[in-house]
């Protein structure tokens, strides 16, 4: 993703560069969205979530973040008329 963003920037394709950078940022921030879900579970149970449940939460939060990033890219590409 980052390589595609740099290639687009070097080609002076600003909209494509912006889209690839938003996607790369969303992937990078995917792990940050796990904390608001896992931390309350840790506080309540006293133990960090492990196993399949933790794996599903991590994957789900990452996919959610990527989906939101893609939604932002599409929203910027086709802005709503005022």
TrEMBL record:
InterPro entries reported for this sequence: DUF2306_membrane
Annotated TM spans: 23-44, 56-73
Top-level taxon of the source organism: Bacteria
Alphabetic keyword roster: Membrane, Transmembrane, Transmembrane helix
Entries under Pfam families matching the protein: DUF2306 (PF10067)
Keyword Transmembrane helix: yes
Protein name: DUF2306 domain-containing protein
Organism of origin: Roseomonas nitratireducens
């Amino acid at each position: 993703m980052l390589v595609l963003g740099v290639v687009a920037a070097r080609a002076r394709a600003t909209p494509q560069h912006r889209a690839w950078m938003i996607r790369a940022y969303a992937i990078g921030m995917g792990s940050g969205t796990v904390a608001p879900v896992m931390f309350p579970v840790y506080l309540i149970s006293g133990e960090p979530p492990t196993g399949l449940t933790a794996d599903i939460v991590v994957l789900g939060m990452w996919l959610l973040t990527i989906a939101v990033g893609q939604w932002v890219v599409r929203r910027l590409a086709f802005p709503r008329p005022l």
